[in-house]
Each structure stands twice: as C-alpha cells, then as structure tokens.
Amino acid sequence: MPKLNKRQIIILGVMLLALLYGAYELFSTGRKGQAVVDTATKATDLNALIGEITSALATEASLPADAHMIKRAEAEWLRDPFYEPIDKREEAIEKAAAHARQVEAETTALKGRLHYTGYLDTRSKKIAIVDGNEYETGDALDVEGYVLNGIYPNRIVIYNKATRLTIEIPLQE
Q: What is the pTM of this model?
C-alpha cells in the first residue's frame, strides 16, 4: 500500500471525527431532546386554524374581479387554447413562400441595377467597387435603404434595413 500524503491524512482524520460525532449523537442522546406532541392536540389546533380561515374568507367581501375569474374558470371552454388548426399552419407556410418570392424578386431586381466589378484587399481594409464607386463594409449604397454588409473576392452581401433581407451579388468581370 502506498504511503499517504499529508492532505489524505487530514481528510481521513476529519472523516473519522465526523463518524465519531455521529455515533455519539446516535447512541448517547437518543430521544431525550425530542418533544412529544399529542395527536389530539394537533387535531384541535388544525381544526381551529381551518375555522379561522373559513370565517375570515366569509367575512371579506369578494371583489367583482374575483367573482368574474371564478365564473370564467367554472364555465365550459368553447375551444381548446392549445389546439392549432391546420389552416394556420398552411397560412404560415404560404406566408413563408410569399416572403421567399419577395426576396427572389428583390434580389433579381437589385442584381440588375447593381454591378459588383472590383475587389481590393489591403491588410487593413477591404474595398468593393459597385457601379464605379468604392465602398467599405458598413457603408450605405447609392440605392435607398441598402448597406454593404460583407465584402468577399467573389461576392458582396447587401442588407436592406427596411425589409431585413440579405442579398448576395456575385462579382462581374
């Protein structure tokens, strides 16, 4: 068996003390310190508490809002609040498809108007040439509401602030 280091000896000593104290508490004190409660006294105290709560609730005037909430809670539900009809799912799918068509139309229109013709990469910054003008990342384009979001050697990424759409325009040589 390998020799125990100082840390292991301390841990074992603390553990031994804890075990000795637990054994002392278990065998020496027993039930001396525990109070004995009569079940009849317990039942009368509980009944008194219930009576006090009932009388306090009966004497307080209930608010109209409380009465309305109780009435609504007891009424039968007209529909399940967790049920999602199939029509809403189809509506959401149609809405997503319409959004995709809008993105496609806007992308096509913008690609026809903007021409990404040059890319310059210095170590400190990247410059894109769009329609003969130089732009850096974050610059607003001449087209209203569009910002240059990313510059890459083969494409640029443009962001529309109003519609929150991102559009990629390839490099034209």
A: 0.43
